[in-house]
Specification:
By secondary structure, this protein is mainly β. The strands form 2 sheets. Strands 3, 4, 5 and 6 form a 4-stranded antiparallel beta sheet that branches. Strands 1-2 form a two-stranded antiparallel ribbon.
């Protein structure tokens, strides 16, 4: 977030603005581990059926963490 902030008697008051230099993003959903070649290192995806979160580490999807 970008914007301004003001110090008031009760603390800081932020007037945030969406950043225009960042691409919009979301978390994609897959059933099972995502195929290799999809995503970039650091990406996350969710499997709502198996209730796992997968992370792309160095171009390879993790085995998944249950939630």
């Amino acid at each position: 977030m970008a914007g301004t902030s003001t110090l008031t008697g009760s603390g800081w008051l932020a007037q945030g603005q969406p950043r225009s230099d960042e691409a919009s993003y979301g978390v994609p959903f897959f059933t099972g581990q995502p195929p290799q070649g999809v995503g970039q290192p650091g990406d996350l995806t969710i499997d709502k059926v198996a209730r796992k979160i997968y992370e792309n580490v160095a171009g390879t999807w993790s085995a998944g963490t249950s939630y």
